[in-house]
Amino acid sequence: MYRIGLCGFDNPMRDQKTEELKKHIGQGVKIKMDDAGNILIRRYAKSNVYVKSTASHPNEETSIGADILKLPNQALESEKIVKLFDMKKFQSNVNRELRRAYPDRRRLETQCLSAVAFVKSETDILECPIWVLIVNVVAMDMLKSKLPPGNCSINVRSELK
Length: 161
Prior knowledge:
It is a single chain. By secondary structure, the protein is an alpha+beta fold. The protein has six helices and six strands; from the N terminus they run H-E-E-E-H-E-H-H-E-E-H-H. The termini are far apart. 23% of the residues are buried. It comes from Glossina pallidipes. Pfam families: MH2 (PF03166). This is MH2 domain-containing protein.
């Protein structure tokens, strides 16, 4: 078990508002991967914790767990364990993408990223004062085996015309 604490990173450029919000995080969240490759998350913070989509477009597929997608603003409930990353959903998305004429590797790579914002939610993750990005290396490796780098969706000839 590894522990990462946001309070361990000093930033002399941090603004006062972020400093104040950081105090509200408290115990934050606990994140772990199960044997199936799912990433589970549990909120311990008294303040809100939001899961943010990393998709380029609002209607684009993600690998965020169904229980989170049902929550208002994807705000995690206190002390409840939910799937932050759903491996079966990701595998299904990979298989669907591979059936396309030009599979989009970037769209699948983006699904391997999970963004979690603390205290306050904004439409753009970069506008959130405190957030973390979790990279699912297991999913990235699986993607690499099914769609090796270099097999991308860009049809150079059609783009040059």
